[in-house]
Write a structure and sequence with these properties.
Structural class of chain A: alpha/beta
Structural class of chain B: mainly alpha
Number of strands of chain A: 11
Oligomer: heterodimer
Shape of chain B: flat
Order of helices and strands of chain A: HHEHEHEHEHEEHEHEHHHHEHHEEH
CATH class of chain A: Alpha Beta
Largest interface: A-B, 74 and 53 residues
CATH architecture of chain A: Alpha-Beta Complex
Number of helices of chain A: 15
Helix content of chain A: 25-40%
CATH superfamily of chain A: Amidase signature (AS) domain
Helix content of chain B: 25-40%
Distance between the termini of chain A: 16 Å
Order of helices and strands of chain B: HHHEE
Shape of chain A: globular
Largest sheet of chain A: 11 strands, mixed
Largest sheet of chain B: 2 strands, antiparallel
Radius of gyration of chain A: 21 Å
Number of strands of chain B: 2
Strand order of the largest sheet of chain A: 1-3-2-4-6-5-10-11-9-7-8
Chain lengths: 487, 95
Amino acid sequence: MTLTSKTATELQALLQKGEVTATEVTEATLQTIEQREEKIHAFIHVAKEEATKRAEQLDQEAADTRGRLFGVPIGIKDNIVTKDMTTTCASKMLEDFVPVYNATAIEKLEAAGAVNMGKLNMDEFAMGSTTETSYFGNTLNPWNTDYVPGGSSGGSAAAVAAGEVPLSLGSDTGGSVRQPAAFCGIVGMKPTYGRISRFGLTAFASSLDQIGTLSRTVEDNALLLSVIAGEDYNDSSSSAKAVPDFTAALTGDIKGLKVAVPKPYLGEGVDEEIAKTVKEAIAVLESLGAVCEEVELPHIQYAPTTYYVISSSEAQSNLSRFDGLRYGYHTENAENLEQAYFRTRQEGFGDEVKKRIIFGTYAMSADHHEDVYVRAQKTRTLIAQDFDSVFEKYDVVIGPTAATTAFKLGETGGDQLVHYANDVLAVPANLTGRPALSVPCGFVNELPVGMQIMGKHFDEETLYKVAHAYEQATDFHKRTPSIQEGK
Amino acid sequence: MTTFSKEDVKYFADFVRIGLSEEDKENFSVKIADLIESVSNLNEVDVTGVEPMTHPVAMINVLREDQPKDILDREVMLASAEDQEDGLIKVPDIL
């Protein structure tokens, strides 16, 4: 077994005992990245020099002060700011942008001893579900390079699935961690809104955004979240709730767990083979002692459009900071300030980003604000109330993570409407602020399928417990794409 | 069918100062009309008496000590701007 095929937990044990050095792990990781990148293009920037230097420093540290991720390689989605390392948001607008500070999540990773291997590809400003809107070219799915890895955290999912890194960070505004995790056959967690500080996460839609964690196993995911979660002085929306050691929740015992399965989650628009696969996964949970029942969610069909309105409206406000003056791309074709704004944005933003900003401006305009934006906010209340009533009786809500397996490259064109069925599954966790996790639960046509487990606010422990019990009862997480054998 | 003309595209893009080519206007006019059509399904929802939801997790009065702290170095911050002079960010002529 090579170093790079090990989980973070396995690597960490070897590193703590000094059986391998951080430098050895980093070198092996950089070699693996180099070999596999030409096939999948998960990284925008491989931090070869920075990682090598960092590993050397770590190896000098005293053995008794080593953090929980000492020497463990990690990749970071390129919308999370990293001091002295480019953070592009996969946009021409920030092609050369080098932040002057670290996101809080990055600071926590550094304090725990993790080694940042570089910045991962994504849809431009996290707007998309295929990673095809990246200014730097798309990422390919490690299971089959004719397919997309999903998105917007496509690079984060592909790098982990391909065995380039055991862990990565993504961000999830409407499924952007969970859907690529499902498409790439790995574990992806969007924690509760406020669980991880968003200081240094480039804002897309502030009432929906959350940093998320990706890994090959549930245990690794729980370890990573334990390290980066918690209240932050710099983010007033971060929660003061105590952060447990999530790995302690992996007891395997889910007897008596009450599982709700919403009817629409396995109904119209969901691929039949996916529905069948997830039903089999639910049967496994039942065999472990869970009690599963069907439930109704009366407003669920309005979740995607509620999401489009709210996310675009918030995005048009957040992205106004990209004016070409304070940082980032600046047009050379302007004679005055107004022209500079117009042309910088014309040249700096891609089509999907422009479309959403203009639509968001329409939704927030004086003529349409009440009828479109506020109406969506009220519908959001109704959707949240539906879930509140379900969670009064049940511990978790389960369904597929996505309605289909990975799309073929170019087949969706980044068009949001095509993803309606997927959004019914993806966006409720963001609209309601609830934690949700995707865990591998099978294959359809040799492409991975994910089961989504949504929980109560700040109850990530139960999600990890259920996902771990399921994972240990099945073998899907042990299958790896052929790219890992160098084929 | 919902229409969103090229003029509509320009009208809203002007508010947010995004320049567009003729081709962009054509393209966005079709795509945004589709979006507006799709979100019109929200008109079916009875929202009488429903409060709008602005935050997914209710947090009230998040306070912190008002104490001065070291912040980032001025030179380092200025260096991240496109152009600078004498400790100020340099922008094109405004007047």
